[in-house]
Amino acid sequence: MNPTPSDQAEAPRYANSPAELPPVEAPTAGFILQLFVIPAIIVVVVVVVWLLFGKLASGEKDAMSYVETIKSPSAHWRAAFELTSLIKNSPQLASDPKLLGELAETLDQDLKLKTDEKLLQWLTSTLGTFQTLDGTTASGQKVDVVAVLCHALEYPSSDEVKLAAAASIAQHAARMEGKFNDPRAVKALVETKSANSPAVRKLAAFALGFMNGDDATAGLKVLINDSNRDVRYNAALALARRDDNAALGFMREMLSDKDLQTLYTQDTPEEERKEIPSKIEAVELEALNALNYAIGVGKKSLATTLKPEIESLGRSGLVSVRSRALEVLNSLQNSK
Predict the structure, then answer these.
(1) Crossing angle of helices 214-223 and 198-208, rounded to 10°
(2) In terms of Cα–Cα distance, which of 183, 291, 315 is closest to 243?
(3) Which of 181, 189, 230, 335 could make an S-S bridge to 213, C-beta 3.0–4.6 Å?
(4) In a domain, 259, yes or no
(5) Same domain? 95 vs 161
(6) Same domain, 161 and 277
(7) What's the per-residue H, E or C state across the chain?
(8) Domain check: are 184 and 233 in the same one?
(9) Is the Cβ–Cβ distance between 99 and 70 less than 8 Å?
(10) Of the segments 189-198, 268-277, 315-324, which one has the largest average pLDDT value?
(11) CATH no. for residue 132?
């Protein structure tokens, strides 16, 4: 049959086409593995990890198994570390009196036995992650968690344990917003004035800052005379939030570019002096925040006295400091 005109028009289009298609081959095992099996395995792993994380986050995993591990003769600090992470991700566990009580009792016993200090450190840190101080053992016996933390704070041979104890007390005090005023904790924090580590004394002043009451204020007035500047500043900030005049001299220092520059230059190694401006900025912002807090709760005596220093910072070349100083001045002006 002769080709039609339309067939002739289509002919050039297929002139260079291969004579026939290549034979169809069955997919190899490697191809199937890459296309289906490996992705399926990845999906399964992701689902398993997701389910496992969901169990951990919701507290479905038996946290008491960690406690039993920690109590065993072969206890390792990583068990306490993992339990801390677990509690942080589970509000249910963080409010469990039995879990808290068992851990506190274990820590108290281990402190007396002077076991592995790394384990003691993590156990002490773990007590600070709870949202309650009401601890009970599995048998229902009450456990005095504050007493255990005070014991850890007085632990003689490890600054790390003391730091963890001060941090845990600070966490509970901050969580309770001024309602945590246990005199035993205040006394133990003040007693750190004789600790060799400035970091311990600094954190003790920080923790006292979250406590109300005359005892805490008296303790801060002890630490404000510390030989370490950071300890003095932490105590001064806490006293400034109370509008206590004992902080006046240190607050003047903390609000002065010139004074801070001189002080930090004197005791900062040459290779670290590039960090001085950021340190000065941080100190000035903390001081302004403390005064602003005091004004916010109706205490403005200290801020009024320091108004010239605040006005000077209102002209600071640092935007963050300048704006915060102007905010404090505005609060002072609008306060009754």
Answers:
(1) 150
(2) 291
(3) 181
(4) yes
(5) yes
(6) no
(7) CCCCHHHHHHHHHHCCCCCCCCCCCCCCHHHHHHHHHHHHHHHHHHHHHHHHHHHHHHCCCCCHHHHHHHHCCCCCHHHHHHHHHHHHCCHHHHCCHHHHHHHHHHHHHHHHHCCCHHHHHHHHHHHCCCCCCEEECCCCCEEEHHHHHHHHHCCCCCHHHHHHHHHHHHHHHHHCCECCCCHHHHHHHHHHHHCCCHHHHHHHHHHHCCECCHHHHHHHHHHCCCCCHHHHHHHHHHHHHCCCHHHHHHHHHHCCHHHHHHHHHHHCCHHHHHHHHHHHHHHHHHHHHHHHHHHHCCCCHHHHHCHHHHHHHCCCCCHHHHHHHHHHHHHHHHCC
(8) yes
(9) no
(10) 315-324
(11) 1.25.10.10
| Whole-angstrom distance, CA of residue 256 vs CA of residue 283 | 10
Joined together, the tokens standing for residue 284 give 């000035």
Query: What's the rounded Cα separation, in Å, for the pair 330 and 49?
Result: 52
Residues 101 and 232 in one domain: yes
Domain interval for residue 334 = 245-336
Same domain, 281 and 232: no
| Co-location of 333 and 211 in the same domain | no
Considering the entire predicted model, what is its pTM? 0.76
Q: How many domains does the chain have?
A: 2
Task: Answer with the one of 219, 242, 265 that is the final residue of a domain.
Answer: 242
330: tokens are 């505005």
User: Residues 270, 191: one domain?
Assistant: no
pLDDT tens digits, 140-178: 999 999 999 999 998 887 899 999 999 999 999 999 988
Domain termination residue (choose one: 201, 219, 242): 242
The answer, yes or no, to whether residue 25 has pLDDT greater than 80, is no
User: Distance (Å, rounded) from C-alpha 193 to C-alpha 160?
Assistant: 16
